[in-house]
């Protein structure tokens, strides 16, 4: 366990220097309060390096990529493909294995729709993805809606049956071996719960899936931004993550797919750019990744995400992870030291990331967040797009603090003070709730 | 301070001791409304006598899970609606909706709004407007289901 330092997180990251890169962190909110941004699990803030890269691209090289032969078009295409290369390198993938999407949700839908399109595809390579009645798709009860609802819909379209791993009371997956069977065709699961912070045993689940020949789809939205990830070493077939949770722009997500599988997967969205040959009677499709990037893609966003990956690589993902671990440990300890506060999820930093969700007895999360907000502290409240998970824990909603490279131990302490203030506020004047 | 402006004593009192809470019979319609962003939910039943704007709301019973704002708003709605006509209730609801959605620019009419004027501070927090409206809009829906001659809410399609 990382030792706690009083005000800094030790030598892993120079947080003061990092904070100077993020202009938004110096603003005030709610009548002059310093912003304490603890909602990076929802969306992260962007450093000058990302903002400048986008602006520089737009000021010098903006053009529609992969079309035209003029100078700007070539430069824009180079910038776009260079971003793809660096993002691939960041997660240990090859560049042909990275598809740009609108966001992670679209990336997950791309897999689900690509697979169900195999039912009507006349490409013999697509046959391996055919799923129908009697087949099963396995998800987990801790999924974000983005990796649950697309599979519910996939099952509705294909006639397959949805099954899931439950969650234990301490916030871990209950890997009941009877859930994955010979009928399982897809296992879609999160790498790190956006609510509990739980890191799931990817290698173990991949081994279970491989044993029955099922495809694995990893929601890596909460892992890729926060820890060193090597998708080849993890052995998953597909993985999805979003740009805006990793210091990059919104409007861009990433799908990783093993090359062999992307080559066989039918397209999801169709139109320009993704074709090989178009005739009035029908069309053939380009090789991946172009097959999955219909239309003029987002370009400055890709450039910005490339810059974000460079920024994170320069910090070192091991250091990023260690820094967040220190903040998480302090938050867990501080919150558990308050009477009436209950952590939802693992209570120590073992196999756990920096999302800390909790409840305060007698104070509804919405009301608590209002008091925190009044102190300038931004947290997420609600069910965090993981409604079944909240139901499993018997709670209607929760408060979530989530940490990133620019957060400090002082901010964790501000959160803890804010929670006490919320308790005091709603206990005032004898109003006992 | 804005926070105390929103969390008026009267709101916290209603939150602590909600008026008219619990589902009762008889009723002509029951609706279930959810705020999908936070998971707050309310079930509302209405018991009307008569039809149209002159119908009398004999009872409004409810069960609710949610934050102080949504709970207190539903409790205040109970106080202001039961015993009045649908037309009168809708007049209050219109003024109330205009106030909480008004971003603080709408001067509330206390003669119409009565205790509901306590929710004026919500207008400064757009993220909480749905909380303040959850129970009221469920009531409106329940009336529409209970009575095919129910009036339109002023300013609504």
UniProtKB/TrEMBL annotation, chain A:
This protein's UniProt keywords: Pyridoxal phosphate, Transferase
Catalytic activity, reaction form: (sulfur carrier)-H + L-cysteine = (sulfur carrier)-SH + L-alanine
EC number(s) stated in the UniProt entry for this protein: 2.8.1.7
Domain Aminotransferase class V per the UniProt entry, residue ranges: 36-415
GO MF annotation terms: cysteine desulfurase activity
Pfam families: Aminotran_5
Top enzyme class: transferase
Superkingdom of origin: Bacteria
Cofactor names: pyridoxal 5'-phosphate
Keyword Heme found: no
InterPro entries in the record: Aminotrans_V_dom, Aminotrans_V_PyrdxlP_BS, Cys_dSase_SufS, PyrdxlP-dep_Trfase, PyrdxlP-dep_Trfase_major, PyrdxlP-dep_Trfase_small
Keyword Transferase tagged: yes
Stated role: Catalyzes the removal of elemental sulfur and selenium atoms from L-cysteine, L-cystine, L-selenocysteine, and L-selenocystine to produce L-alanine.
Family matches, as PANTHER family: CYSTEINE DESULFURASE (PTHR43586), CYSTEINE DESULFURASE 1, CHLOROPLASTIC (PTHR43586:SF8)
Family the entry assigns: Belongs to the class-V pyridoxal-phosphate-dependent aminotransferase family. Csd subfamily.
Protein name (Swiss-Prot/TrEMBL): Cysteine desulfurase
Organism: Actinomycetospora termitidis
Automatic annotation (TrEMBL), chain B:
Lineage: Bacteria, Bacillati, Actinomycetota, Actinomycetes, Pseudonocardiales
Native source species: Actinomycetospora termitidis
Stretches assigned to the NIF system FeS cluster assembly NifU N-terminal domain: 6-131
Annotated PANTHER family: IRON-SULFUR CLUSTER ASSEMBLY ENZYME NIFU HOMOLOG
InterPro entries, alphabetized: NIF_FeS_clus_asmbl_NifU_N
Protein name: SUF system NifU family Fe-S cluster assembly protein
Pfam families the UniProt entry points to: NifU_N (PF01592)
């Amino acid at each position: 366990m990382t030792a706690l330092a009083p005000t800094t997180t030790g030598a892993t990251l120079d947080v003061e220097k990092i904070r100077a890169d993020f202009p938004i962190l110096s603003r005030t909110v709610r009548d002059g309060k310093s912003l304490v941004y603890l909602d990076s699990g929802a969306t992260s803030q962007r450093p000058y390096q990302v903002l400048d890269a986008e602006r520089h691209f737009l000021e010098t090289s903006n053009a529609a990529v992969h079309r035209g032969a003029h100078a700007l078009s070539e430069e824009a295409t180079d910038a776009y493909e260079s971003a793809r290369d660096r993002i691939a390198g960041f997660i240990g993938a090859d560049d042909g294995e990275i598809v740009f999407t609108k966001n992670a949700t679209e990336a997950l839908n791309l897999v689900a729709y690509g697979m169900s399109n195999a039912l009507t595809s006349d490409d013999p390579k697509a046959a391996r993805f055919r799923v129908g009645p009697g087949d099963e798709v396995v998800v987990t009860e801790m999924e974000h809606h983005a990796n649950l609802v697309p599979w519910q819909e996939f099952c509705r379209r294909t006639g397959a049956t949805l099954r899931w791993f439950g969650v234990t009371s301490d916030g871990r997956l209950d890997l009941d071996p009877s859930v994955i069977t010979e009928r399982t065709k897809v296992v879609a699961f999160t790498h790190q719960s956006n609510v509990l912070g739980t890191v799931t045993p990817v290698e173990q689940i991949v081994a279970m899936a491989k044993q029955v020949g099922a495809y694995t789809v990893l929601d890596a939205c909460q892992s890729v931004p926060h820890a060193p990830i090597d998708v080849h070493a993890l052995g998953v077939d597909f993985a999805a993550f979003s740009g805006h949770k990793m210091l990059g722009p919104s409007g861009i997500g990433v799908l990783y797919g093993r090359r062999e599988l992307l080559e066989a997967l039918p397209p999801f969205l169709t139109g320009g750019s993704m074709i090989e040959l178009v005739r009035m009677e029908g069309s053939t499709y380009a090789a991946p990744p172009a097959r999955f990037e219909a239309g003029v893609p987002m370009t400055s966003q890709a450039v910005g995400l490339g810059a974000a990956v460079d920024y994170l690589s320069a910090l070192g993902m091991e250091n990023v992870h260690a820094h967040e671990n220190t903040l998480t440990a302090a938050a867990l300890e501080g919150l558990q030291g308050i009477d009436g506060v209950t952590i939802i999820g693992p209570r120590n930093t073992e196999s756990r990331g920096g999302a800390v969700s909790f409840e305060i007895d007698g104070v509804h999360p919405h009301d608590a967040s209002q008091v925190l907000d009044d102190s300038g502290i931004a947290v997420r409240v609600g069910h965090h797009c993981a409604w079944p998970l909240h139901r499993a824990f018997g709670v209607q909603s929760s408060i979530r603090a989530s940490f990133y490279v620019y957060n400090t131990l002082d901010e964790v302490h501000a959160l803890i003070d804010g929670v006490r203030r919320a308790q005091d506020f709603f206990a005032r004047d004898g109003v006992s709730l | 301070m804005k926070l105390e402006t929103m969390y008026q004593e009267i709101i916290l009192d209603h939150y602590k001791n909600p008026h008219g809470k619990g589902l009762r019979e008889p009723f002509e319609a029951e609706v279930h409304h959810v705020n999908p962003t936070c998971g707050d939910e309310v079930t509302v039943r209405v018991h009307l006598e008569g039809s149209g704007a002159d119908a009398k709301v004999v009872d409004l019973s409810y069960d609710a899970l949610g934050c102080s704002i949504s709970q207190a708003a539903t409790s205040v709605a109970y106080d202001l609606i039961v015993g009045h006509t649908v037309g009168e209730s809708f007049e209050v609801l219109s003024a109330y909706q205009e106030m909480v959605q008004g971003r603080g620019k709408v001067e509330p009419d206390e003669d119409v709004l009565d205790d509901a004027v306590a929710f004026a501070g919500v207008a400064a927090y757009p993220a909480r407007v749905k909380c303040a409206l959850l129970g009221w809009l469920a009531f409106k829906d329940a009336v529409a289901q209970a009575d095919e001659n129910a009036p339109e809410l002023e300013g609504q399609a």
